[in-house]
Write a structure and sequence with these properties.
The protein has 621 residues and is of the alpha+beta class. The chain has three domains: 118 residues, TATA-Binding Protein (2-Layer Sandwich); 238 residues, no CATH class; 223 residues, Transferase(Phosphotransferase), domain 1 (Orthogonal Bundle). Helix content is 40%, strand content 19%. The strands form seven sheets. Strands 7-12-13-14-19-18-9 form a seven-stranded antiparallel beta sheet. Strands 1, 2, 3, 4, 5 and 6 form a six-stranded antiparallel beta sheet that branches. A four-stranded mixed beta sheet has the order 17-23-22-20. Strand 2 and strand 3 form a beta hairpin. InterPro entries: Aerobactin_biosyn_IucA/IucC_N, IucA/IucC-like_C, LucA/IucC-like. One of its GO terms (biological process) is siderophore biosynthetic process. GO terms for molecular function: acid-amino acid ligase activity. Pathway: Siderophore biosynthesis.
Length: 621
Amino acid sequence: MNATDMAARQVMQDLIDCLLAEEFFASAPLRLADAAQWEGGPGRPPAFAALDPQQRIWEWCCDEPEQRFIVAALRPGITQSWEKVPGSPVYLRHGELWHELSPERFMSLVLKALAPRYPDNEKGLALFMEVLRTSVRQTELSLDHRIDTGALLERDNAAFFLAMEQWASLRDRPYHPLAKAKQGLTDEQYRHYQAEFARPVALHWVAVERAVLQYGDGAAPQGESPADYLLSPSQQTELQAEMRRRGIAESHIALPVHPWQFEQVLEAQLGEAFERGDCQRLEFNAASFYATSSLRSMARPGHSADQLKLPMAIHSLGASRYLPAVKMINGSLSEALLRQAREQDEVLSQTLHVCDESKWWAFMPPGATLFDEAPRHLSAMVRSYPSGLLDDPACRLLPMAALGTPLPGSDRHFFDDWLQCRELPVNASSVLVLFRELCHRFLDVNLRMFRLGMLGEVHGQNAVLVWRAGQVQGLLLRDHDSLRLYVPWLKRNGMSDPGYRIKQGHAQTLYHERPEDLLFWLQTLGMQVNLRAIIDTLEQLYGLPAASSWAALREVMEERIAAIGFDDEAREMLHHRLFASPHWPLKLLLRPMVERAGGPGSMPFGKGQVINPFHRIGRVS
């Protein structure tokens, strides 16, 4: 199968599954027919001739006057009641005529049929379709590329880490049909800047007057600059020589800028600051970096504990990827809480690892506020990974997203290396042993944090496993600005409200009124996205039934809740929400994007509900 077909199939799968989970078509039961009894009329496609007894044919009328129907094959799911049969085509049926649908054609029919639901939102619907087209195209570009995954454990830690970041980038956010869309990039820019292509990126540099810079706690105004962490001694000398020639070596600090941001954004957003001399474009651009799975986070070549995060105002997941000072201020407050959590729990002191994100610089001219648009487009953060982990020859840092990302046209997976390291046979039973160990560490860290009143945004991109000599030793967290809190539990554990900076009158997801609301993030991002992607990938590559992995996940969850020192009230709440309740929460992805007219702002957000996956284990084979 070529990359074009693979991309269409992958996006269509996620698109239909997501719409079904979010009850996009209707909250009423779906119109389903038993595959064995369904006739389908003349010209019935052969794809529907060999369905399993559990599978059903779904028909949805997208054009009542013309009697046109969208037809797809569904099967019972674990994380939702029904999901599209993987790899199966989707058709438009009009009388005796059948046409296989692309994701774009499918969604255009759906939105046209439901347009009365969204009056005066033509702009929003058009934007949604534009993002979908971009997602399909850029998914195709990624699937047409082969990343180098040979001899992974023979590489040093930094080289291994970068390879796994490139692997993780291939899928981006699992189950989100628009995740690969990076609007604003041409095909060539996408191939150049996206992590999986492993192409070096030469950064531009801009000198910014010290008086109009805001600093993180790890970056004193008269102290070090980004160059001290990111450039070799000879490169620092070259950069400083240019600044001395310009007469600004003492008055300005050089900030790195992504070349796309440099060319596409700076003049429009900060032209006046350059005219005043507050900012000056420099000729120096000798240093090259490699994109990680988050695109705007860049890794230095070679062995270094320091990486770079930059603003890059492309549009991704419905949001513009700038880097405002307020995000980094909140991230520093969160980091302090995470370090306190390590002191509060003896196990966390050994198993929770935290990146240092206190070194940052942000343009902040006089009179500007933390929530102004322009300043957020010129900033930089140096993210430092724990040197003890990178310097340990037995240790590897493993972004969890890589474990939930199948390689196109390959059965390769890191579990191959893990099984070999542990001298285990390559079979489903051995894979389940390793998956259980992974769940133990992941859930133990998160539940211990939850007991203290906090949870990180532990989707597979932010959560990094610390793998040492065949064992999952701990969990490394990065991108701290999304640490979620339940303040009453913080206080009873000797910690306090960090005082996040939040724009008045705007929705926020950092503070929560109930512990149940905080648990939402572990159930959704942690399990329904991160662990589910790993479960589905292990089923695809090793034949380990998803139901077996979910059963193991439940057993580990019950063990950890019993072992960790929750009080009776908290333990009862966890048992009800995780095991007894017929439903779990769902983080809505597509409905908020469709409903929001206009261009990107912050990431669209909504809450729904789906079936409890632990109730489905025995029903899905």
